[in-house]
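Appendix B, example 12.
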Amino acid sequence: MRAAVQHEIGQDKLEVLDDVEAVGFGPGKVRIRVRATGLCHSDLSAMNGVLPQPAPFVPGHEGAGEITEVGEGVTHVKPGDRVVICWLPACGVCPACKRGQTELCLAGFMNAGTPNFKRPGGDVFGFAGTGTFAEEVVVAAGCAVPIPDDVPFDIAALIGCGVTTGLGAALNTADVEAGSSVAVIGCGGVGISAIQGARLKGAAEIVAVDPVASRREAALRFGATKAVSPDELADAKQSVTAGEGFDYVFEVVGKSATARTAYDHTRRGGTLVVVGAGAMDDFLQLNMFELFFDEKRILPSMYGGGDVLRSYERTIALWRAGRIDLEGLITHRVPLAEINEALDQMRSGTALRTCIEI
């Protein structure tokens, strides 16, 4: 089968090969024919080494498709079922799951250390234990979440990561208060989803911050009340909050510099939500006095900060009701053979989400 492979960490191009085989099928596993997958910035971060990932590997973790085969003991799906691929399935029995913090379950991360594919030259891993830049994947049954027949594959793919992450940051982690002021730094697919979440919660002012003009324009369409470049953020803080700072600031870039900016533009007693996934050697510096004196809450948001399965259901309900726009997030579409074009679109900031049609 065909899959896009990165041979070494640091390479900026993927090679689409037709000699890749999905492996590991057996009890408790499912085989999925991937129909659509989104390109998430985390895929780029894995490619360039910001996020740890063994190589060679198949990137991609935001996908949807059809079940083609189920292993012994799998009862919640059957061949022909449409599913979204969950890259962080909950085991249900670990301490985090028992506390209701299923997004902190480590079972899915354990899968990342086991090869998902092989080629004549040896084993190939799947990013985040999945690897959706492939025609087919074999994953643990918990990674396959059934979706209704009326949800298109491209929409379902977005729900698999970016939309769930951004919406959840606003709805679950921050629990944005109606009438509040919000700033979102980084307005790709995840940031736009955070903007939609803040709008759903009734935020009065939502300032979108991004260096790319087309993303700022898109943010206004999705619910932002103002869109500025990073060097205009201080003026926006002054005009929107009279210099006090925003009630909520979402950092959706994954860098300490933007997290520091976000902290500085959060009001005293306000909330900084860290959504972007950054590098292990990129440290955010805060002095102990400001940490105490400002009483700002710093809330990391992992995969939307809530029960993933419930979040999927909620997102589908909101989409069906017309309360959120998911179709508009897909600004580009490319076949798997042109995956490197999608990477260029992500790096340049011209795409909110590129759908890779497989």
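The first helix runs from residue 41 to 47. Residues 120 and 178 are 57 Å apart (CA to CA).
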